[in-house]
Amino acid sequence: MKRILVVEDEQAIREMVGFALKKAGMQFEEATDAEQALVVIASNPPDLVLLDWMLPGMSGVDLARRLRHDDVTAGLPIILLTARVDESDRVHGLEVGADDYITKPFSPRELIARINAVLRRSGAELEDQPLEFDGLSLDPVGHRVRVNGDPLNLAPTEFRLLHFFMSHPDRVYSREQLLDRVWGRGVFVEERTVDVHIRRLRKALNRRGHDRFIQTVRGAGYRFSVRD
Ligand code: CA
Questions:
Q1: Ligand 1 mean position to 191 CA, how many Å?
Q2: Per-residue confidence at 122, pLDDT binned at 50, 70, 90?
Q3: How far is Cα 93 from Cα 58, in angstroms, rounded to an integer?
Q4: 104: CA distance to ligand 1 center in Å?
Q5: How far is the centre of ligand 1, averaged over its atoms, from the C-alpha of 219 (Å)?
Q6: What distance in angstroms lies between residue 81's CA and the mean position of ligand 1's atoms?
Q7: How many other β-carbons are positioned within 10 Å of the β-carbon of residue 217?
Q8: CATH 3.40.50.150 is right for the domain spanning 3-123
Q9: pLDDT (tens digit, 9 = 90+) per residue, 53-78?
Q10: The CATH number fitting domain 131-224, selected from 1.10.10.10, 1.10.472.80, 1.20.120.30, 3.40.30.10
C-alpha cells in the first residue's frame, strides 16, 4: 500500500485529500507545515509527498528544494499543490525538483490520477515492462536492447542509463540527478563520469542514428527525446 504524505496547512484540503487517498486504497499521512513534514520523512519516508506551495514558515518550494538536495530524499516523488497558475511559477516549481504540480481547486479524481502517474514514472526505472521508441526497444527482463530489430550490446551502466532515459522521456536531468537516479543515492562518483557514459551510449546508438535521442541541454544536463 502506497503511503502518501500530505503537507498542507488548510484542514479542509487535508481532509478532502485524505478521503480521496483512502478511497483509492492509499495510506494517508499528514503534516501541517514543513518542519513537521521533515520529522515524518526522516522517521518513515513516504512513497510520495503532496506538498502545498504556500505554507506558514518554510514554503513548499523551499521544502522541495531541501528534499532534493539531501541524498537520502533526493529521489522522493513530490507533487506541488498550488493556487498559482502562472507559467513562470509552474516552471519554478518543476525546477526546484517537483515531479508534477496540481493547481487548486482540483478534483479527487484528478488528484489520484496525477499521483498514480508520478508513482509510475518515478518507479519506472526499476520496472520490468519493455519500452520502445521509434525502432529503439529495451527489454529490462531479458536485458536486451534492439535497434530496428537488431540486437545492441550495452555495458551495464549504459543499459541502466538508457533504461532510465526511456522510462523518463522528454525530461531534462542534471548530471547530479542522473547520478542519484542511475548510479544510486549516496554513491560518490564525479559528475563528469556521467558525460563519459553518455558518450559511450551515444556511440553505441550512433550506428543507426538513434544517438539523436540523447540530447544535451546546455547548462542543464541531458534529455531523452525522439523529437528534435
Ligand atoms: Ca496553504
A1: 37
A2: low
A3: 15
A4: 10
A5: 33
A6: 9
A7: 12
A8: no
A9: 999 999 999 999 899 777 678 778 89
A10: 1.10.10.10
